[in-house]
Design a protein that fits this description.
400 residues, alpha+beta, four-stranded mixed beta sheet, 18 helices, globular
Amino acid sequence: MALNRYNLTFSGLLIIHFSILLYLVDSFSISYDEADIYFNQNNILAYITNFFTTVFGQNDFALRIPFILFYMGSAVLLYLLTDDYFKNKWDRVVSTAIFMLLPGVNSAALLVNESIIVIFGTLLYLYLYKLREKEHYLLLVLFLFIDNSFAILFLALFFYSLKKRDNTLLIVTLVLFGLSMSMYGFEIGGKPKGYFIETFGIYATIFSPLLFLYFFYSIYRVGIKHEKDLYWYISMTALFLSLVFSLRQKIAIEDFAPFVVIAIPIMLRLFLHSLRVRLKEFRKFHYIFSSIVLGVLIINFIIFVFNKYLYVFTEFPRKHFAYKYHVAKELSQKLKDLGITSVSTYDKELALRLQFYKIGKGRDYLITPFKTRTAHKRIKINYYNKNIINYYITKYNYSE
């Protein structure tokens, strides 16, 4: 990749974003779901997090750095993939920058979840396909054992093989899809009722509302008017299946969303084509629309980066969108400052979170968020002078 102004701009954006994500690591505590993966499960996420914490110590940096690295790799792969996708070289920089600003992608880059691994794997497959113009069947087989979400990719490639009339790809992907269904299935649950609107709303949160509406339009427009490439087949398959399933069942959105977000280049190319075929005096709507979309993305990113400041304006801290990723680290540190390294609590989820920070289970101290007559110590968790929650400590006296 030659060093030119486009590559330098992209490299600068990537370094800045990487620095921001590293800064954010310290502001998050392990959530219960993440702690459950780390301590109790046997899957790719558990293996990765346990390996990194073994190497770098049991701390938040080691817990989250592998997902930041997958994010960095995904951004680089998307940039490399689009070197000949746009007519203007700056367009690929803009495309990758939009990908880097997506709320869902930023969350996936910091949290213990399989979404960013699936995004990276899909982009890696697409890049290797572009380099050699041939399928990488061994990589597809590897995906089978990584995560159930790759069933979407297998199905998309099956539909793509029908277009290409590639019998080998058709058979391989059909077999892999069948094996994935028999091994994992899809995680759907809840009472049989419509979750369509809820699923639509989650996608709007992942993209930002206006951008998702334009994504929806882009998939439809390309489907009826333009040449359908592999990006389209993958995104369309994921979107169609998720919306169909959600008509009757609640779906695990993380199974589908990673394949939807890779449609960013499709959306941008369609938008820029629509913009540039018009005379300058007729481009006003496009400029207004793009300014609003980018403005909302930037605002969402700023909110994500400075999310703890929102507690200052929140009447009920527990309704903060990231509350379940806060408090535990600060509580564990305050307990250690008091010389307490083991506690009992009625909150089993909190107990597992504290275990990550080396606060074990014990019978000498009880901590609760409710004041009791026997409590002798109070721990205040404050963010920017706003009280988030108080914990009360009761010391048991077993001496006669």
